[in-house]
Structures are given as structure tokens and as C-alpha cells.
Amino acid sequence: MSDPRDGLTARRGALRLMAHVLRDGRMLDDGASGLEGAEAARALRLAGTVLRHMGRADALLKQRMARQPAARTRDILRLATVELMVLDAAPHGVVHDAVALTRSSPKTAKQAGLVNAVLRGLADARAEWDALPPPALPPWLRKPLAKAWGRDRLEAIEAAHLVPAPLDLTPKPGVTVPGAELLPTGSLRLPRGQVSALPGYETGDWWVQDAAAAIPARLLGDVAGLRVLDLCAAPGGKTMQLAAAGARVTALDLSEARMRRLAENLERTRLTADLVTADALDWTPEAPFDAVLLDAPCTATGTIRRHPDLPHLREARDVEALTELQYKLIDRALGFVVPGGRLVFCTCSLLPVEGEHQVTAALGRHPGLVAEPPDPAALGLPPETGSAHGLRLLPDLWPERGHMDGFYMAVLRTRA
Ligand SMILES: C[S@@+](CC[C@H](N)C(=O)[O-])C[C@H]1O[C@@H](n2cnc3c(N)ncnc32)[C@H](O)[C@@H]1O
């Protein structure tokens, strides 16, 4: 039988993670729940579920309180509400632990009675919960997405964000993993689980990479023997793909910490690349490359299903700074390509200003630059993902398979 304290431990860890995101403005993945192993995973899952459903939890709780309680008490109530309404947890344990957590801090102890009363009042709130509008993205993101993709598609994207992402692996050529589904795009898909326990982890036969994120490197086709620059490379998912496909790769990134992770990833997978830690806007290569892959920094809004913290952390003003950096990086990257060579530009964003618009603008700025139309069928993707200039992936794709991240990517060929 499981220890009844287990629930309390994971719930306390989830509260730490929620505070880390909601009050410290930091990313969920960087947060320390203070736990390890299965308890840490449970705390992360609880915090992520709260962040996905927080709008509805707040709407339900608002009806039941005259005033906002202390921030921590509010989080305790949000967690309990989501456990009751979304995760169908046993009410007795949820209410008991919520009250215990409220009592455990002098700052909130006085609100234990309120927490008990509010949560007991949720016993008959199921119909009210079901009648609430489904979780929606924040207005700064909803508005441009509705304009770009239409309201129906936006709602399908929002629904896809509620489905926890499966585990996707990119295998080295010829590698299979028992029990994994081979996706039409070549990735392997498994239910979520402990990565390091899977066969092939120690021997570096594969690496974790969303199916959508694995497409940009594949746009370059056969890269064996080519000199390829992976610009904005860390933690190295695309570097590993290019190196495994036989390219002579230079991997560059600004972040020392992320470059350390890239080096560890190359070591585990026994792959090699020349590593450069530098700002791409200042750095100049000794000789131009046959191809450059630019996975530019962006809002990462295509990864919300795996990062439910993002809508709580980003805001409209981030978009402007990022699009400015993206266009500078594109122009810089084009200068690193041999005449007649290729630049793959991609971002894991849902916003056309970080994808389609960047490519149209680059074509306008650089006479002689052409966009090569992609062939979705050859990549194992639905035909509607392709356009004259690039490939657009949105998270509502592949509903029967468990969806994929949002991405935009294009192949630009320089004048010969
Ligand atoms: C989307 S992530 C790259 C993910 C990586 N390509 C992969 O597949 O694993 C964007 C990266 O851009 C890097 N970056 C941001 N600004 C940069 C700059 N001016 N020069 C070089 N790298 C930069 C960030 O450190 C971050 O690692």
C-alpha cells in the first residue's frame, strides 16, 4: 500500500514549482520541487496540469470567495480544484492535504478554515465546472493566432495543448526501440516514461526530440560529407541529427550552460561536431558552409503542450524583441553560406511573424535568394502543411497519433 504521506510530498513539490513559475517568472523545467524520482515526476505533472487548467480553476474559486486569499493559499486551492475536477483524485485525500499544507506555514495557517470550506463546497460543483469555457490561451497570443489560423483551428490548437505530449525519440540510422511506434516522419514515439530506463540510452542510440523538431534537419536531405553550420544549436537535437547523417558539423550557441549540455549529448551519442560558444551576431567563420541550419530563438509557443508554463511567462512585448533578433540572425546566417548553398530557417513558434513573415521579408531583402518549396509527402507529413515558401506544423496535426509541436521551417537557397 502506498504511504499516505506520498501525496502530501508531491503536492508540496507542486506548490513550489507553481510559485517558481507564477511568482518568480521562471520556467517550470528549471524549477526545483525539492524531490527526486517518481515524486519529482508527480509534482511536475501536478504543477503542469494546474498551469493548463488554471483559468477554469480560478473562475470556479472566484464564485466562492469574497476576497483573494494569500498567494500560496490561492495556489493550494488551485491545485486541489484541478486535482478534483481534472484528475478525479479522491476528495478526502485532496481536502485533507490542502488543509494540512495551508496549516503548515505561519503565513497561511489562519486560512485553513477557508480552504476546508471552499473545497468541501466543490463537492457538487461538477456541472458548474463542465459548463465553464475550455482553457484558452492568453489574449496576446489568441488574437494573432485567431487572425492567422481562424477561430476553429485556434480552438483545435488549444484542445491539443491539453493533451500531454508523448515521448518522441530520434533514432540513429537503423535503430529501433521495442514498443515504440515508428512515425511516418521517421521519429519513434512512446508513452511518456523514464527516459534513462529505455534500452539504447546508455549506448546513445537515440535522443529525445519532438517529431516536429526533427523535420528541419531532414529538409537538407543527404548531408553526408557536407560542411554544415548549426547556428543556435544547443542543446543539440539538430546537431546530433546532422552528425549522425554524416555531415561535418560546426555547432554554435551563445549560452555556455546550454553548450555544456550539447557536449554531454554528443558524448552520450558518440557523435562529433566542432563546438563554438559565441554570439552569432559577432562571430565570423573562417570559410563559408555548404548549408546553415538556423533554429532561431523564438517565443517557443509551438511547444506549449510540453511547456504549459509558457503562456504564463511570455507576453506580447517579447515577440517584438524576438522577431528583431530573428531577422538579424537570418541576414547574418545568409552571409555564412557558400554561393548557391542553403539556409534552413526554423522556429518552434505558432506565430507567422516568427515564421512565414520572416521568410517573406528575407526574400524581399535579398535579391537572388529563393525559397525551395518543401515536399510534405516525402517527409511523411500531410499535404496541407506545405506552401510555396515553407512548411507549417501546428499542434492540432496528427490527433490520432498524439499530436506534434508547432513549427515553421523553410529552405532558402542563395544566388550561385
Ligand atoms: C530554439 S533554441 C535551439 C535548439 C537547438 N537547435 C536544438 O535543436 O536542440 C535557440 C538557441 O538560440 C541560442 N541563441 C540565442 N541568441 C543567440 C545568438 N545571438 N547567438 C547564438 N545563439 C543564440 C539560445 O542560447 C538557444 O540555445
UniProtKB/TrEMBL annotation:
Domain SAM-dependent MTase RsmB/NOP-type: 129-415
Highest taxon of the lineage: Bacteria
An annotated Gene Ontology molecular function: RNA methyltransferase activity
UniProt xrefs under InterPro entries: MeTrfase_RsmB-F_NOP2_cat (IPR049560), MeTrfase_RsmB-F_NOP2_dom (IPR001678), NusB-like_sf (IPR035926), NusB_RsmB_TIM44 (IPR006027), RCMT (IPR023267), RsmB/NOL1/NOP2-like_CS (IPR018314), SAM-dependent_MTases_sf (IPR029063)
Keyword RNA-binding: yes
UniProt keywords, alphabetically: Methyltransferase, RNA-binding, S-adenosyl-L-methionine, Transferase
Similarity remark: Belongs to the class I-like SAM-binding methyltransferase superfamily. RsmB/NOP family.
The name this protein goes by in its record: 16S rRNA (Cytosine967-C5)-methyltransferase
